[in-house]
Amino acid sequence: MKRAALAIAAWLSWAAPEAHACSCRGTTGPSSALTNRGERVGAAAGVFARQATGAFDHRGGYHPYGGTVRDRAVGVSLAVGGRPLDATELSLSAEASRGSFVAGSERRDQLLLSDLTLRLRHELIATPPHLPHAIALLAPGGGVRAPTATAASGSAAGASPSSPGLGAWEISALADLRVRLGTPLVEGGISGEAAARTADRATGIERRLGPRGLGRVAVFAYPRPPWSFGAHVDLALEGDVRYEGRLARDSGQRLFSAGAWASRDALSGWRASAFVIGGLPVAGKNAVVSTVVGVSLAAAR
Q1: What are the domain boundaries of the chain?
Q2: CATH superfamily, domain at 2-300
Q3: Residues 31-47: pLDDT tens digits?
Q4: Smallest Cα–Cα separation from 182: which of 127, 136, 126, 124?
Q5: Which residue among 133, 156, 258, 263 has its CA within the 20 to 30 Å range from the CA of 219?
Q6: Where are any strands of DSSP class E within 27-181?
Q7: What is the pTM of this model?
Q8: How far from each other are the two terminal CA atoms of the chain, in whole angstroms?
Q9: Any residues with CB less than 8 A from the CB of 154 and at least 6 apart, and which?
């Protein structure tokens, strides 16, 4: 078991560091907004820490690291956005982290810079908390991830907060739906992201990463202003990779995770948040299981 954990950890870290990527941007996911209607600009900055606890192999077997492997990182995130129209937000986000990986006698310390991601979100319906409307939010959108960071040789469905970069352009579609669950104080939400990537030669040969998907089921609670709380379960998926036109079978990825967050609004448009997200050691494939904790501070005007 220890030898298997060492081998899988080394492969995922060296051959496919993108297996650690996290699709999690902000406490409510990739389709969340930095601003509300009536605000024009917003920004958020955060710090996070990640600790990996195990990895899935290509057959879905889970191998806990125990004391044989240490895989951890600390990092920062930054996002800025604005509303050209009252119901439409454009945002730009990026992350950077310092990672440390140890497997037996093998050790690597690395500074990781993420790709830049541009997102557009349009709110067809958006009603404030504490109002009795059945639909609280309906917001489709889209995104473009530019290959601005150093490319990795792997793909991107796993559970670490940052990645060296895809090495390819990624185009995504987003959707966010929230409904009130019998009371204005509690909402249920479903959100998702589906993405396709262009072919590239980041690894020296022709490569095409598989399509990626993220689904999230969440519950939001607003017990008393200025506090809000939430919890969610995620499923991240990624299809098999093609090299020189040939499909590399069993190279796709799958990971379930769960998380929770708390936010507090302050005066003059400021908001402080804390979150925890953990990969679940069930039904995964080719992915690292990690726990990520973080805090962020956001402002909008």
Answers
A1: 2-300
A2: monomeric porin ompg (2.40.160.40)
A3: 689 999 999 999 999 99
A4: 136
A5: 156
A6: 41-56, 62-64, 69-85, 88-103, 106-113, 116-122, 125-126, 135-146, 170-180
A7: 0.85
A8: 54
A9: 12, 15, 16, 17, 18, 19
